[in-house]
Each structure stands twice: as C-alpha cells, then as structure tokens.
Amino acid sequence: MRRSSLAIVLLRLLLPGSFAAAAGLEEAQNQYLSGDYRGCVASIEKEIQDGAGGEERYLLLSKALLASGRYPEALKSMTNALRQEPDSIRLRWQAREVFLGNGEPERAGQMADEIVQRVSSDPRTYRDPASLVVFGQAALLKNADPKRVLDQLFDAARKADPKLREVYLAGGELALEKHDFALAAKKFEEGLKQLPEDADLHYGLARAYAPSDQALMAASLEAALERNSNHVGSLLLLAERAIDAEEYPEADRLLEHVKLINEWQPEAWAYRAVLAHLRNLPAAETSAREAGLKFWPANPQVDYFIGLKLSQKYRFAEGAGHQRQALQFDPEYLPAKAQLAQDLLRLGEETEGWKLAQQVQKEDGYDVEAYNLVNLHQTMGKFATVTNEDFLIRMSAREAALYGSQVLELLTRARSNLCAKYGMELKRPTIVEIFPEQKDFAVRTFGMPGNPGYLGVCFGTVVTANSPAVQHGHPINWQAVLWHEFCHVVTLQMTRNKMPRWLSEGISVYEESQANPSWGQHMKPDYREMALGDELTPVSRLSAAFLSPKSEHHLQFAYYESSLVVEFLVKRYGLEKLKAILRELSEGVEINQALARHIAAARNEGEQKVTGSKESDAASELKKANGAEDDAMEEFENEFAEFARERAENLAPGLDWEKPESEKDAAPHPHQRKPPTRTDEESWEAWAKTRPTNFWVMTRQAEQMVEEKQWPEVKIVAQRLLDLYPDFTGPDSPYRMLAAAHRALGETNAEREVLGKFAERDDEAADAYQRLMELGAVARDWPAVAQNARRYLAVNPLLASPYRFLAEASEQTGDTRGAITAYGALLELEPSDPAEVHFRLAELLHRVGDPSARRHVLQALEDAPRFQDALRLLLKINSPPPQTRASSPTAVNATP
Q1: How would you class 618 by CB atoms within 10 Å of its CB: exposed for 0-12, middle for 13-18, buried for 19 or more?
Q2: What is the DSSP string of 342-409?
Q3: pLDDT at 583 over 60
C-alpha cells in the first residue's frame, strides 16, 4: 500500500466516533503482568475450556505461551483464535509474533498486510484506541511515515484511552528503534504517570537511559523487577551489563533464571553464545547459537545480538561476521545493516562502511544514528589528510596546517617505541581521526552525540580523538592522549582485541608515564584517601569499575588503579611476563586464568631457584602448577592491595593527612566546596592550631593568604608544602601560589625557578608555560623559550602566542627550518601583524633558497606598502643570485 493511501486512511480513522472499550480479564492479566506466565496460561485455558472466549483471552493466552517459551502451543492456540475471531486485527498483530517465533516469516508478513488492508477497506470498524495502535504498528512495517503514525494514530489512541499501555509501549519502542532515546524516555515516562506499576514501561525507560545514564537505567530495572521478578527483558539487560563488566558468573546466573522462565528465549541463547565465545569455547558457542535458532532457523536477530555484543567487546571482525550472517537470513534487516556499517568503519574498511550507512539512512530517514553518520561523512569529506606509510591522519584543514606534522611525528615516535617494546609488528597503517567538534567525535565513536568525558577511543586499527579545540573544563595534553591511544593500537592488535578494559587502559596509562614522567596519572591526595579507604576494586572485577562508576572521580581512579596494577605486575614479575599474558589473551584465555597461571608459574620458578630443586617430572610439575593457580589470583590481589596502600602511605610522608570532620565529605577541589559557616570556621581554627604540618590545614592557609595577598606569608607556607610534597601539581598546586608570591614581590628569578620546577612535573600547566616563555625571552634564554613553547603546543596548538615565541627562539638559536614552520603556523592563525610575519618568513625562506620567499614578501608589501625592510628584501630577491646560489638546496614548504 502506498503512503498516500495510508494518509487517506489516517484521516478517515480520526473522524468523530466512539471507541470500543477493551475487555478486562483482571486476574489473568495481573498474573501475566507480575510474571506468573504459567499461572496465566492455566487460568485462561480453564476459562476457554469452560466455554469462555473473546479477543482478550486469546491475546493474553498467546502472550503468556510465548513468554513461557511454548512456541508450538502458541501457534496452535493462535490458529484456533483466528478462526474464532476472524475480524480481530489485534489478534493478527499478535499472530505475527507467533508466526515469527515459530519460524514462519512469510505468514507473519501476511498478517501485517491483512491488517492494513482491513483497516483501509473499513476504517470505521477499527477506530477503537487499541486498533489504532495496531494499525499504526502494521503501517510502520509498510513504510508509513513514523511521525504521522506517532502524531495521528498513537496520540489519538492515547487521548482516547490514557490508560492503554500498548500506546506507550509502541511509541517508546518506535523511538528506541530510531535511536531517539530522549523521545523514548518521554514516551515511557508518560506511560508511567498513568501506569506506575507496569514493569514493561519501567524496562522501556531503562533502555532509553542505557546509553546516557547508568544510575537511572539501574533504578528503572530495579523498579521493573520489583513488579515482575520474571521480567525477561530486564533480566537480559542485566545480563548484558554483567557481560560488559566481565562479571561472567553473574551473567550465567541471570541467563539461567531466564531459562527457567523461557527455555528457548533467542536473545538469551545469543548471550550464552557470546559468553562461550569470550571463554574460547567454540563447541558451546555453536550449541548456544543453534538453540537460539531452534524454532526459527533463519532468525536474523540471533546473529544480530551475538554480533552486537561481540562488537561492544571490541571484537569487530567477529561481530561483522555475525551481521553478515544475519543479512543472509534477511537482507532487509536494518539493525544488522546499521551495525555492520559501524563495525566496518571501526575496522577501517571505510568504503563499504560508509556505503552501508548511506543505505540505512536512505531506507530509514528517521534513524537518528544513521542520519548522524551520513552528516558526519559529509563533514569529514572536508578534512585534510596527513600521512606516511604507517599512518593516515584526518583532521580539519586548518588544524592539519597548524600541527598535523606534530601529530605525525609524535605517532611515528610512539610506533617505533611501543612496537619494539611489546614485540609487535603492525601489518597495516593506523587510521587516526581528530575532530574539532565534540559532537562529531561522539557520532564517529559511539554513533550518537554525547559522552563528553572521552578524550579519545581506539578500536584496534582506528583511533578517534577530540582535538584541543574541544574544551573539557581544563587543559588537556593532546600528545599524552594520542600516545595513550596508540598504545591501545599495539595491545589490542597484539591480543586480537581480546583483552579486558582494565588491562587495556592500565597499560596505556602506564606507558604514558614511561614515555614522559609528567604524563599519565599519579598518586595524589584524593587517590591516597581512596586507596587507604575501601575504594580499591579487586583486580578480578576491575573492568566493572569503568562500567558504572559512582562519579567521574571514581572513573578516573579506575584508570589510575589499573595503571598501578600494571606497574606492580611489571615490577614484581617483569615486562616479559606481561607480554606472555597478552599473548595468551590473544588465544582466548580469560584474563584471571592467564594472570593466575603466569603468577603461579613465576612463583614456582622462584621456589625452584631458592631450593635448587632439580625436579624433572613434567607431570609432577604440571600438577604443582595447577595447584598453585587455585590461590594465585587471591594472593595477587592481596599483594597488589598492599602495594597500592604502600604507594598511598608514601605520598609525602612528612605531612599529616588526617582530615577534620568538616572536610571528610568535602568535594576533592576547594572551589567545589560549600562556604563554611561561622561555627565551622571556629571549629576549624581550633583544630588547625594543633596540626602545623597537616596537608588540609596548610593548603587552606595558603589559599586564604593568596586571597588576602599576604605574599611573604604565602611564600613560607607554599614553600613548606612543596618541600614536603614536591609532586603536588594541578590547578591547586602550591607551585602556582609560590610563583604568584614571587611575582607580586618582584622576585623574577625566584618566580622563574619555581615555574620551571612546576613545568617539569605538570603536563597541562599552560599558564606556567606562557609565563616561562615571557621570562625566558626577557632573559634571552632561547632554549628555555623554545622548550616551553613546545610544552604549550602540546596542550593547545591553536593559539598564536607559542608559535610567535617558538619562531623567535628558533631564529635566535639558528634553527631556520623550525622558525619557518613556526611562522607558517602563525600565519594560519591570522596574526594582528601579518605584514611582519610574512616578512620574517620571506627572509628565512630566502636564506635557504626557497622561491616562495618572493610570494611572502609581496604579501607583506600588500599589507604594508611602505614596509622598508620588505622593499629591500624584494630588491635582494629580484637581483641576479650569485653563481653559487644555483646549487643551493631547495627548502621545504613554508606551512607545516
């Protein structure tokens, strides 16, 4: 049926008239809604045996049979129901589900056709709210406009019967299918205002919150299961989250619960197949997949769910294989086509990936994710490319001109360092995409805008990152970010993407600090408090700390703890042991098993060396090793916890770290805390007088002194803090306070010395780098100026100041090519004195024999026609060069 015909039917359906009231079978309905599916079946079957019938009973019986996994019985019951109620389009819609569940998609399609045909030929008969919803759902399958269905059918049904649960479920499900999660949440919330006890609506709301708010999702799932402890959808969503957190025993438990409710639930078997795959159990994986396809051997949803979950575990190649299988079953199954597009884009197979994304968007213009991807592709078409044989880097043209060469140089250095260290040979170039707008980064990375906390993401051979143009509330060192992400490239490919989140992140953070001591994460006061409290997560469950952290602060601590585990592992057992664990992960061994095995083996080797054992019986040694593995993981976790606590206790041991009661629940940073009351102040002062070396007392005193401009006193307190805690960096560092005091007192040399120490330790202190450039230029310490300009560019390469300082420093130190690059970048930033910059660049280019010098001096004269130095340079350029100049080398382009 064409859309124009459907539109006519929509108008005819909305003519004034009465809506039929839905029949009620309250007791059986309550059994169904509370999860007593078998009880519901028994109740309805008894009523039917006693001679009762009607549309509502047949509908409820069918739903309960499907929920119980009794698919053949549901088919038999529905065949009888259609004979008894031949005019019911609601039964036909339910019959569609029954036929699909029994592997008869053609008959299911006929049901949707019949619904549209019946309503089209006799719309007045089907004007009741429930029929409006069913007709809308069937019309959507026939490509009706989703917005018109929502506005003209579902809304009409809702207004006529605000208590009709199906209208909220249908509207919310439609929004979820289109990836419009905000609209989905709105629809389900509207339903819960009318039906607060409906588990299906709570579950729908959980799905709407899942991409953006883990806490609200968890609360909605809890509400659903309080009302229906057998709610299969909620149990499956919990199982999915357990898989994400690598809590596989918990996922097993939840799936076993589902099996008791519905032995043949396809999605549950898909997740069992995923678990088997992650555990490297191919026979069990095949068996689980076959069980999921038992009643519908060509069900595309089974492979779609398997592939989706594997891709979410970064197994993109395997995930793509399952999506291709789903599309073999049903070439028009859009979810599989959309997911395959994402998989291919993350695998770097871009031509096919973008083509598929465009197909999905063309076939479903309301799919928000596909729409975003297609728009993004158009945006990225304007990007510039910086490349060599190992990297393909895409950036905005402006940013590529400014610091593209710096990106390439950094990544080339990371590749050389990390590939050699981990013994990894990368067989294909790495794609790196840097986005100047956070929403574009989010769409490329996650498919949807949002997720503002991420700086970069690595998929294996593809890296996406936010550019320095994206502000995250404080400066970010983009060089550290890219080093971190490229480390993921190495370890993910080394393990074939078969590594847990915590280990992947832990190695990358660890390698940041190995490359540059100021990079990465380090023990600090709030981490000290968490490590010595009860915030350490057992290593075996560390990936869960990334999935649903209590706060952004807890998420950052998860990164730090993970890096600390890696550091402990390398220090205690050596880098070779870590590499051996990574190699085992690539073979499909679970992380806890691999850790336990290698730790037990290392201890066994150590015992043999100590005792001088010459045991040669291989069977005996294997038995001994297996026995040692049983306790190795627990011992490793205990030893690591001791290591972490020792690291925390060794943070500035000369300081008193006791907190006053008023500070124990305070925010980590002073500017986030509530102002104290008078009583608080008096209590604090009395407490502080007895604690002259207390960290909290000293930092607060220094902050108050800075605020009151008591600079001599600031010097005393800040210096004492730094003597006891020289690695105290960050926004609230006493280095900043001490430098400010020296500056206010005119002690320039002392200020410069303090800022120099600070700059060595803090990789994001752009304000300190700026001041050091200024002081270095006054002192004509050009190497220091260049060093701090480069530090600044590692934080923000989009500002003119560091390029100007770097250009001057390079000139003064004889680095002509460095000066050319810096002046070229400065021109990209439209300086206030373009004539001067063009002139300086022309002079340098002429010095190395580059003919583009003439173009730049002419541009200088265009901006300033009476520029005498530029006129003299033009005459010099135009004069016949000496014979010796003919053989001089040609310089590189002016722009970087």
Answers
A1: exposed
A2: HHHHHHT-HHHHHHHHHHHHHH-TT-HHHHHHHHHHHHHTT-EEEE-SSEEEEE-HHHHHHHHHHHHH
A3: yes
Query: How many other CB atoms are found less than 10 A from the CB of residue 238?
Result: 23
Q: Which of 786, 736, 779, 732 is nearest to 758 (CA)?
A: 736
CA-CA distance, 493 to 733, in Å (whole number)?
Answer: 39
Label residue 685 by pLDDT band (50, 70, 90). Answer: confident
Lowest pLDDT segment from 204-213, 311-320, 609-618: 609-618
What SS3 state is found at 615? coil
- C-alpha 316/C-alpha 309 separation (Å) is 10
Contact between 127 and 135 under an 8 Å Cβ cutoff? The reply is no
Exposure on the CB side of residue 401, measured as CA atoms within 13 A: 14
For residue 714, which amino acid is it?
Answer: V
pTM, whole model, 2 decimals?
0.88
Q: Is the pLDDT of residue 38 over 50?
A: yes
Q: What is the residue whose two structure tokens read 């600079």?
A: 711
Place of tokens 């994986």: 285
From CA 231, how far away is CA 34, in angstroms rounded?
8
Angle of the 711-724 helix axis to the 734-744 helix axis, nearest 10: 150
Of 786, 781, 783, 725, nearest in space to 757 by CA: 725
> Is residue 678's pLDDT more than 80?
no
**Average pLDDT for 150-163:** 95
Q: Quick check: 152 and 14 in contact, CB under 8 A? A: yes
Q: Which residue has the higher pLDDT, 755 or 692?
A: 755
Query: Across the chain, how many H-helices and E-strands are there?
Result: 45, 5
pLDDT at 19: 31
Q: What pLDDT score does 85 carry?
A: 93
Reply yes or no on whether the pLDDT at 623 is more than 60. Answer: no
Residue that the structure tokens 């883990």 belong to: 214
Q: Give burial (CB, 10 Å; 0-12/13-18/19+) of 812.
A: middle
Interval 190-226: pLDDT, tens:
999 999 999 999 999 999 999 888 889 999 999 999 9
Mean per-residue pLDDT, 787-802: 96
| CB neighbour list of residue 761: distance below 8 Å, 6 or more residues apart | 517, 518, 726, 727, 729, 735
DSSP string of 223-287, one letter each residue? HHHHH-TT-HHHHHHHHHHHHHTT-HHHHHHHHHHHHHH-TT-HHHHHHHHHHHHHTT-HHHHHH
pLDDT at 24 over 70: no
Q: Which of 41-50, 553-562, 570-579, 597-606 has the lowest mean pLDDT?
A: 597-606
Three-class DSSP labels, 627-693: HHHHHHHHHHHHHHHHHHHHHHHCCCCCCECCCCHHHCCCCCCHHHCCCCCHHHHHHHHHHHCCCCC
15 DSSP assignment? S
Q: How far apart are the first and last CA of the chain?
A: 59
Q: Which residues pair with 435 in a beta bridge?
A: 466
- pLDDT for residue 51: 82
Nearest to 306 by CA among 343, 331, 349: 343
**Number of Cβ within a 10 Å radius of residue 16:** 5
Dist. CA 689–CA 441, nearest whole Å: 51
Nearest Cα to 63, choosing from 46, 80, 40, 79? 40
CA distances, 292 to each of 249, 286, 322, 372 (Å)? 20, 10, 14, 33
pLDDT of residue 382: 95
